[in-house]
Each structure stands twice: as C-alpha cells, then as structure tokens.
Amino acid sequence: MYNFTYHRAGSVDAAASRLAESGDAKLLAGGMTLLPTMKQRLAQPSELIDLNEIDGLKGITVSGGTVTIGAMTRHADVAASAEVKQAIPALARLAGLIGDPAVRNRGTIGGSIANNDPSADYPAAVVGLGATVVTNKREIAGDDFFTGMFETALDEGEIVTAVRFPVPQKAAYFKFPNPASRYAVVGVMVAKTASGVRVAVTGAGPCVFRQSDMESALSGNFSADALSGISQDADGLNEDIHASAEYRASLVVVGAKRAVAEIA
Amino acid sequence: MTGFGDFLGEFGDNMTVRVTTTVNGKLVSGDVEPNTLLVEFVRENLGLTGTHVGCDTSQCGACTVHFDGKPVKACTILALQAEGHQVLTIEGIGQPGNLHPMQAAFQENHGLQCGFCTPGMIMAGIGIAERNKGASLSEETIRAELEGNICRCTGYHNIVKSIAAGARDM
User: Fold this and answer.
1) Which CATH superfamily is domain B101-169 in?
2) Which domains does chain A have, with CATH numbers?
3) DSSP string, B59-123
C-alpha cells in the first residue's frame, strides 16, 4: 500500500469539512473493500478519513414502521439484531450473507452503499425495500441513490449518515453467492409493500436495478407462478469467468421465483 | 495535529506515529506509519508472530484476531485504528501447559496438519463458540461460519470436530 495521511474524525462535520478541503481523500468506513483496493493500488487516495470513532453513526432504531440503521453499523450487528429480525427478517438475513463472519464484524452499511459494488448485497435492500439514504446534507430516495457501476448520487464532501427502511408487509432475499468471494453473482430482493411490489436485482448488471416486468406481474398475483412467463433480458448484464450474461439472466428469474415462493 | 475542529488525530504520510492500544490485556505502544496494518504491528512491533499472514487480501483468515472481542482480519485494519481498542491474539488466550479449551481441542482432535492456518482457525472458532453460546452448535453452523478461514491441507473435517469440542469445553 502506498502511504497516505490518516485522519481520525471525531464528528461527521469534521469529516465532511476535511473531505471538502481535500483533493482526493477517501472516507474509511469498515475498510473491507477500500483497504484491499488500496493494497492492489486500484485506489491511491492521499488521505483517509476514518469514521470508526464517530459513535453517532452507529446503531439501529425501530419505530413507527421504520428501521433506521446508522451508516457505521456493522453487518454482524444488523444480522444479529432482534429488532431487525422481527421488523424486516429479509434485511437481517441479507446482512448475514455478506462476506464471512470476520468481514461482517467490520463492514458497514454506509460503506457498502457508498461504494456501490455491482455485486454488493445492500443495494438490493435499499432499492428493493424502497429505503431512504440520509446524508449530512439531505435525504436521497433509494431509487435515485445508485447511479451506475461504483457510482452514487453522493456529492463531493457528502457523507451517508443513516439508511431508513420502511417496514414492508413481506420481503425475501435470494442470493446466489460466488463460492469464493461470497459476493452476489445474482441477488434479488422482493418486497410487498403498502405502495406496491418491488423487485430489485443486484449482481446481474453494472448497477442494482428494478425489474419492472416482475413488479407488474406480481402486483396482480403475488405468487411464483405469476413470474413463469417472464424472462430477463441478458443484454447489458455482467459477464465474467464466474457466469455468463445469459446465466445471470436466468438466475434473476429463478431467484425472484424462489424469493416470492418463500413469502407468498 | 490540530486545526480540523473535531479531529481526534491527524497523521501525515511517511511520518512515524505512536499507537497505543491494549493487546492481550496489556497496554502497549509502538511507532507505526499510517499504512501499517494491524497484523504488521502485532507481528513486527510486538513480536507476536503467532498471528499469521496468509493471503494479505482478507480471504484466508490466517490473520484473525479479536478486536474489541470480535474476530476480524488483522490484515485489513490499520494499526492506527487500534488506538484505544482491545486486541486479543493467539498468544493471549493460553500458554503451553495452560491451553485455552479451543487450543486443547485442536490438539486432541488433530485439528491441524501444517499449522499455518491454525491460529486463525482457533480465533475464529472461539468467535463461533461465543456467537452461538447457549445454542446447540451444529456441524452445519460451524462449517458455514468457517467460510472466511481457509486451510490448504484440506483438514476441515478435524477442524470442525475441534471447534465443536472446544465450544463444549468453553
């Protein structure tokens, strides 16, 4: 790893002002992606601003039909939370499928969504559950947050502080993990909410997306059978040594059916 | 180190800085650079070479230590991030003649061949036992929760047996 300047931030405001002043500082959340990326020299920030000592960014609260998760809350804490398990079991399950236990003890929800890896799990939860991303400046609808591969709607100097998930009527998450990396080859979050059915797909494309054909079909008939006539277009999907675009397209349909079958 | 409002600390590149942390119950300090990894600090500054570096990419788990009581990969945490925190390494859990129950279980169940992954396996195994305290610990759970620890002698069968036995004795 190249060397860099290290800042231990004591507050979000301090981190934000430093981020705004600096040319190419990066925020250090759990570090589970950033530090390996820096070792490979795929990222070479001249400064790291560590958010780990800001206690106000950690914790889970459930009230009024909303689960609010602080940006620096670890995956393991979401996975083990009795409150999350009760309110949105699919969200706790998703958190427990990320990486491995040691990674889940460090990795954070804010870091995951700000990085927006195309194979990350949390983007499927944020979009699939219709969550709202809260930053130090504003609130961003989950549907508008993820803008492309490793790209988000975050501005320079903007820091995710929390994610608010409305509690759905039902939700389930299907994941086909890469057996070595545990990243999602394909992940599908299906949720039935008061305002309609949402189907969000991660891993398959360059960025999480909603599968509107499935959402329409499930709105009339919330059953796996409703998806039998639906196919996912492979055009533009990811293709690598692990899976072809066609295979990923097939997994999207299989995954959505299995998720629906779990809760229909 | 001032001038940034609420910054608790700021350290420039190529600048040696002092980190103070608690390792195996003892308050220790050492001079590190910002890019020094926790595992490098533990091995090179403190001489605690029981924690191994296998892949250096947070895949293999040989560097597993406990950070504030929870297993983490010490190759993917900066030494400076340990400031004021609690680190537990394989040296801190037992000694020859007075082994930790998980260490004893690995010995009794032949839970190792070359031994390179073993410190990480034991630290991860203690984590598995602690996370599942009070519940019956199935072989399936142990195998699933060992996904971040790789043994290249293909010795998983006895590792799983060791962790089951160690958890029973903890």
Assistant:
1) [2Fe-2S]-binding domain (1.10.150.120)
2) 1-50 (3.30.43.10), 170-263 (3.30.390.50)
3) SS-TTEEEETTEEEEGGGSBGGGGTT-EEE-GGGT-BTTB--HHHHHHHHTT--SS-SSHHHHHH
Q: Where are the domains of chain B?
A: 17-92, 101-169
Q: Are B45 and B55 in contact (CB under 8 A)?
A: no
pTM for this predicted structure: 0.95
Q: B128 and chain A: CB distance < 8 Å anywhere?
A: yes
CATH of domain B17-92: 3.10.20.30
Determine contact: B67 vs chain A, CB below 8 A.
Answer: yes
Contact residues on chain A for B64, CB-CB shorter than 8 A: 102
- Whether residues A103 and B80 touch (CB distance < 8 A) is answered with no
| Closest CB to B14 among A1, A3, A103 | A3
ipTM: 0.94
Considering only the beta carbons, identify the residue of B13, B64, B72 that sits closest to A3: B13
Tens of pLDDT, residue by residue over A199-254, are 999 999 999 999 999 999 999 999 999 999 999 999 999 999 999 999 999 999 99
A residues 95..124 contacting B (CB < 8 A): 99-103, 105-106
